UniProtKB/TrEMBL annotation:
It comes from Serinicoccus hydrothermalis. Belongs to the prephenate/arogenate dehydrogenase family. Its EC number is 1.3.1.12, 1.3.1.43, 5.4.99.5. The keyword Oxidoreductase applies. Residues 105-368 form the Prephenate/arogenate dehydrogenase domain. Residues 5-96 form the Chorismate mutase domain. This is Chorismate mutase I. Signal peptide: none annotated.
Amino acid sequence: MSTPSGAQEALAPLRDQIDDVDAQVMELLARRLELVSQVGEVKGRHGLPIYDPARERAMIATKRERAAERGLPPDLVEDVLRRCMREAYTHEKNMGFTRQAPDLGPVVVVGGAGRMGALWGRMFALSGYDVRVVERDDTPEQVAEAVDGAGVVLVSVPIADTLDVVRGLPPLPADCLLADLTSTKREVMRAMLETHPGPVLGLHPMFGPDVDSFAKQVVAAVPGREPQASTWLVEQIRLWGARVHEVDADEHDHAMGLIQALRHFSTFAYGWHLAHEDRDLDTLLALSSPIYRLELIMVGRLFAQDAELYFDIITGSSDALELVERYHERYARAIELLRTGDREAFVRQFGEVEEWFGEHAERFLGESRALLAHADATRS
């Protein structure tokens, strides 16, 4: 629909002023990033983590108060600041980090040409470590040469290959730390402890290789042998900005069954069902509410990635199938509530789940509003 000429004349100078303000905002953002670079250099020199949760909370609270005093929506100001901080963490990362183990031998990343291995290799390099990369087509002689004098050997290969790769490693230096990045821990920890008599640590980054920064990310750490020998690595990861959560192998794998295996399987089954319902996706998107659009985004995200990787994640734990089967049984019972029209039973089960979520339910309701607003704002 065309805009009337009178409206165009009235809008033109206002739009010019908005363009001028936008230009000023960009100049200020550029200045902010310059200051962030300086902050990153200071943090790097003094061994400070790029993510300081207390500082972030205090800054957001103060800025929200000032926004309200100025007559600005506090949520708007917080959204802008959080986006700026996310960019700042990425920018600070490139300034480098203090090396937590200055006398450590080379860091050998087995599978370092893969995306996750390459990401960790870059982080070690940014911290001043000598990084070596080993790949599967390297000869035994090349692998033995790479691990000679190594301070850390980090295994980052597909889940299905991890046990064979670990067991096929040549003898490592006695004080070398052997670690892995596998999403299941019970079997790989056993294999690492059997293969290497020295220090062992299990790691599981709870994020993909496409992250801009480790800031606010979570890394699970599973103690193996000689935990004091891996303290420096845990602190190095914290320095990169990540939260390190220590957990034993059994508890980790049980949690991953729910967080990863069951979630990914449910997403796979839902996507499979949608495809076989054969409805036009563009129509679904055009008619979708923000929450359904966000759900479609998360489902579609899975199918833009490696199918074999997700099969390995879903089947990586020995008890994952039993977990999925229990979910199937409860799903069938839920369907029965609908088939019999049992409203009272449905409300009762709903209440049980609500009670399990407790106070988190209200908090999640608030957090989801921000996600839904973002999903709605980005739709074209």
